[in-house]
């Protein structure tokens, strides 16, 4: 498992908020899916409300 840094922005009540999070995943696609899943469950967001700009190892 590798450590990935995922950055982007999500739609909040007051406009778009930026984020950067560290994720442990097998590859960058899995890291991106984890972020969509995590933000969706914690913040009640749909995938269209999340924009991922960069996934770096």
Automatic annotation (TrEMBL):
SUPFAM superfamilies: RplX-like. InterPro entries: Ribosomal_eL20, Ribosomal_eL20_dom. It comes from the Archaea. Belongs to the eukaryotic ribosomal protein eL20 family. GO terms for cellular component: ribonucleoprotein complex; ribosome. HAMAP family: Ribosomal_eL20. GO terms for molecular function: large ribosomal subunit rRNA binding; structural constituent of ribosome. Keywords: Ribonucleoprotein, Ribosomal protein, RNA-binding, rRNA-binding. It comes from Natronoarchaeum mannanilyticum. This is Large ribosomal subunit protein eL20. The keyword Kinase does not apply. Pfam families: Ribosomal_L18A. The gene is rpl18a. GO terms for biological process: translation. The keyword Disulfide bond does not apply. Residues 1-56 form the Large ribosomal subunit protein eL20 domain. Gene3D superfamilies: 3.10.20.10. Part of the 50S ribosomal subunit. Binds 23S rRNA.
């Amino acid at each position: 498992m590798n450590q990935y840094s995922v950055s982007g922005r999500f739609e909040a009540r007051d406009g778009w908020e930026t984020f950067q999070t560290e994720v442990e995943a097998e590859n960058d696609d899995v890291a991106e899916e984890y972020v969509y899943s995590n933000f969706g469950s914690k913040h009640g967001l749909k995938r269209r409300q999340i924009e991922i700009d960069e996934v770096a190892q």
